Amino acid sequence: MKTLVLFTALIFAVPATLLCQKDRNTDEYKVAAIGFYNLENLFDTLDSPTTNDADFLPNGRLLWNTEKYVSKEANMAKVISQLATDITPDGVAILGVAEVENRKVLEDLVAQPTLQDRHYEIVHYESPDERGIDVGLLYQPKYFTLTGSRAFPVQLKDPKTGEPDFTRDVLYATGTFDGEQIHIMVGHWPSRRGGESASAWARAAAAGVCRHVADSILAIDPHAKILVMGDLNDDPVNKSVYQVLQAKGKAEGLKAGELYNPWYDLFKSGTGTLAYRDAWNLFDQIILSQGLVSKTTGGWQLYKTKIFRQPWLLQTEGAFRGYPFRTFVGDIFINGYSDHLPVYLLFLKKK
Q: Pick from 152, 144, 145, 148: which is nearest to 171 by CA?
């Protein structure tokens, strides 16, 4: 991949006024955006015998038909097409996604008129999840060159009953981004069904898988550039994130091999990506290794943390006023977007 030529759209000279004070003595930077978005039940209308998709069929509980599916795809594409475009005209170069039924719904997504010119390619694996949903990764090949990928299973066994449970795999992808190797994990950790405390063990198991993969990479290169992203179904302060994944809330003093969670302070200030019982949670996170935070490692470094919170992504009336504007309220189709807000990070690199 040509280091500079291919970045004419996504990565460009940033005006000094956009940079933090300590960087204003430098005239030009490259900038890149990487994000995550839970697409909330992006199912097709076809019956798949191996997928729990009964509700999302024309004769199912939600009366999920072609018209609704087409509208859902267009709505998701509208959101994705606008992420980070205030800073880079090509938007997000890499986007992790969750709650997709299969590869076909992602193929339909990237073919939408608002996205097709970006030529997103797809990384996707079928998961054994009992809801029939998977995670995926979209990337623009002129910015990111994929060199490898695989799915890491999250093996669950109920600590009380010993019964196995099935959830989403952790998707792992690696490749070069402007000539630099990066490692990406996309996850959708087990839900809080049955209660936050009662289900915490399952999210700890998912966090353990991510930590193990990260440790394996960091054992070879302590300054490796790693991103762990997803709907973690836990906040930055919860045990799975803060203790098991060991994602620290402060960048200062971060050591090689450690992970940094740039969403920690945002959550503590009351900001979130989804609402439940009139309170905000920040489940959607992108966590970074020290290599993407410490300027001593050079190359791409974290600049800004963003929640894409537009007025049109929030409900304006009813009992859920101010909540994310989702596709359904109960069984009623309201033609919204998702019950989660998307997030993204901006990275800078001296030109």
A: 152
Task: Count the helix, strand and coil residues of the chain and give each as a percent rounded to the nearest 5.
Answer: 25, 30, 45
Q: Which tens digit of pLDDT belongs to each residue from 23-36?
A: 433 458 999 999 99
Q: In b/e form, how buried is each residue of 244-280, taking b as 16+ CB within 10 angstroms?
A: bbbbbbebeebeebbbbbbbbebbeeeebbbbeeeeb
* 176-190 residue pLDDT tens: 999 999 999 999 999
Q: Is the distance from CB of 138 to CB of 76 less than 8 angstroms? A: no
Residue 298 is predicted with a pLDDT of 87
Question: Domains (ranges, CATH) in the chain?
Answer: 5-350 (3.60.10.10)
Average pLDDT over the chain, rounded to an integer: 91
d(CA 282, CA 274): 7
Alpha-carbon 188 to chain mean position: 9
Residue 158, pLDDT above cutoff 90: no
55-60 contact pairs (CB < 8 A, 24+): 56/101
pLDDT at 351: 84
N residues, the chain? 351
